Amino acid sequence: MNLHSIKKIAGMAICALCATSFAQLGEISTDEPASSPKADVRVRRALESAGVKYTIDKDGDYKVTWTLEEGRTHVVFVNSNTTRLGTMELRKVWAVSFVADEVSANNMRALLELNAKYKVGNWSLAKQNGGYIATFNVTVAANCAAQALRTFTQVVASTADEIENTVTRADRF
Asked: Which pTM was predicted?
């Protein structure tokens, strides 16, 4: 699958799954996290209200597993810990897409180019254990409405899984 096809599919997945997009602006703050790593009850309430099944990991984050096309699955995390940006309280919704020893400049550029196509979310690469971990991330309001949180977790799952399938052909995450 070429880069154009990847962009087109990822863009369609975002458009199909995300009914609304939310822009949040504010001043940059270096405040400490707004909450501890314990499971945030607001996330539980929102997921349960939206009919989303979940588990809670050892860090207190919510783990949602979505079943996607062709029987594939993808795990999404909704962080319990939050951060502040000005007066806003935010949390991260994210999923691992792939892990690699090296990521080529072409692949990094492809992920950055995909970022420009999304209504919400972005790719990030982080060094981990001598390699790289690629995640797709969406930042949402800490008190995100139930249906919006459901949509965001679906968008994260489908976007991360599409690239996982393209890059690795595996269904690891």
From this structure: 0.78
Q: What is the pLDDT of residues 64-106, one digit of tens each?
A: 999 998 899 999 999 999 999 999 999 999 999 999 999 999 9
How many angstroms separate the CA atoms of 43 and 54, rounded? 10
Question: Are β-strands 88-100 and 83-85 bridged in parallel, bridged antiparallel, or unpaired?
Answer: antiparallel
Q: 94: burial class by Cβ within 10 Å (0-12, 13-18, 19+)?
A: buried
- Using a 10 angstrom Cβ sphere, with 0-12 exposed, 13-18 middle and 19 or more buried, the burial of residue 106 is exposed
Domains and CATH numbers, the chain: 3-24+33-154 (3.30.1460)
The first and second tokens of residue 124, run together, are 């990030």
